[in-house]
């Protein structure tokens, strides 16, 4: 299935049972909610998906199962976060074999590669597959920035088509558009900058709190796309305290707790992560409770 790299792409959480297995039943319930809300793609195995703690066979199962659930309605994108070029090429190959329609790629893990090493890594994987690729540019969390000059070199690979823009520099959307025009699709990767990025010309939103609030997330995207900016802003202002749960070291625990509140997830995480406790848990629950109690009425947006 073609990946257009436009619209809302949930970076979905991975659901676990209390005995630390994949919880396919709850995962399916969440994916159904995402599809019903009108998302434009599904991204697996990102930070929110607890990728670093997933076994290789679990990643295989996730891709296969999600492809079955999506039924060709939206593309399924698998995140590639590997330590070696060899490992990344193998992961890309397996993702395609298991039914992925596209890839999201982080720079090499653990080793802080320089610019040439990073570009060479991305190109090697891109040249090994015909799957379309979105580069995940997040120097805040992963310590390697993919600069505009690096994107210039990466533009030689036709299947490197998009960027998940998570530099936290809102002007980077304009810099990319000014230099490359429409060569790369830009998807905001920071929930608290999403509407601002879209209004500056970003093509989509790789979202986190969408995992718990899919309809509100898609409504914001569709409304701004239709030029109904005031309506989008009103929902976004309600949403912001919840979106800030994504900009936190415990974003996985935070968002899984929000999924519990909206009935489409559990708070079970894989150790060494643990569910939130004490004052920290109470604080997050208070934010979620406030949001749920004041959840806005949404206009009809699916036909926009």
Written overview of the protein:
The protein has helices spanning 24-37, 56-70, 85-97, 115-128, 139-142, 148-154, 171-180, 194-199, 214-225, 229-243, 251-261, 278-293, and strands spanning 7-10, 42-44, 76-80, 102-105, 133-137, 160-165, 185-188, 204-207. The mean pLDDT is 97. The protein is built from twelve helices and eight strands. The protein is an alpha/beta fold. Helix 1 (24-37) packs parallel to helix 9, helix 3 (85-97) runs parallel beside helix 4 and helix 9 packs antiparallel against helix 10 (229-243). It starts with 6 loop residues before the first strand and ends in an 11-residue tail after the last helix. The radius of gyration is 18 Å and the shape is globular. It has an eight-stranded parallel β-sheet with strand order 1-8-7-6-5-4-3-2. It has a single domain (7-293), classed as TIM Barrel.
Quick overview:
By secondary structure, the protein is of the alpha/beta class.
- In whole angstroms, the N-to-C terminal distance is 23 Å
CATH class assignment: Alpha Beta
Query: Structural class from helices and strands?
Result: alpha/beta
Main beta sheet: 8 strands, parallel
Rg, nearest Å: 18 Å
Coarse shape: globular
- Strand percentage, roughly? 5-15%
Poorly predicted runs of 5 or more residues: none
CATH fold-type name: TIM Barrel
Organism: Roseivirga spongicola
Family: Belongs to the DapA family.
GO molecular function, one term: 4-hydroxy-tetrahydrodipicolinate synthase activity
Protein name: Dihydrodipicolinate synthase family protein
């Amino acid at each position: 299935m073609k990946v257009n790299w436009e619209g809302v792409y949930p970076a979905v959480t991975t659901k676990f049972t209390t005995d630390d297995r994949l919880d396919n039943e709850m995962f399916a319930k969440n994916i159904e909610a995402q599809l019903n809300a009108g998302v434009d793609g599904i991204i697996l195995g990102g930070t929110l998906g607890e990728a670093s703690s997933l076994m290789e066979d679990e990643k295989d199962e996730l891709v296969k199962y999600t492809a079955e659930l999506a039924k060709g309605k939206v593309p399924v994108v698998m995140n590639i976060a590997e330590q070696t070029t060899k490992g990344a090429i193998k992961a890309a190959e397996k993702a395609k074999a298991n039914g992925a329609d596209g890839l999201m790629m982080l720079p090499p893990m653990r080793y802080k590669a320089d610019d040439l090493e990073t570009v060479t890594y991305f190109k090697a994987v891109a040249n090994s597959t015909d799957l379309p690729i979105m580069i995940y540019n997040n120097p805040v969390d992963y310590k390697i920035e993919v600069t505009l000059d690096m994107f210039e070199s990466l533009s030689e690979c036709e299947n490197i088509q998009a960027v998940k823009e998570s530099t936290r520099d809102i002007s980077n959307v304009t810099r990319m558009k000014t230099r490359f025009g429409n060569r790369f699709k830009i998807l905001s990767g920071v929930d608290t900058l999403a509407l601002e990025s879209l209004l500056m010309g970003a093509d989509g939103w790789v979202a986190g709190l969408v995992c718990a609030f899919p309809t509100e997330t898609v409504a914001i995207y569709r409304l701004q796309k239709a030029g109904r900016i005031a309506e989008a802003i009103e929902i976004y202002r309600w949403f912001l305290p919840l979106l800030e749960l994504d900009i936190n070291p415990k974003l996985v625990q935070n968002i899984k707790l929000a999924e519990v509140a909206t009935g489409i997830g559990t708070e079970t995480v894989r150790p060494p992560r643990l569910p939130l406790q004490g004052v920290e848990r109470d604080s997050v629950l208070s934010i979620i409770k406030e949001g749920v109690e004041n959840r806005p009425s949404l206009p009809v947006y699916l036909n926009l």
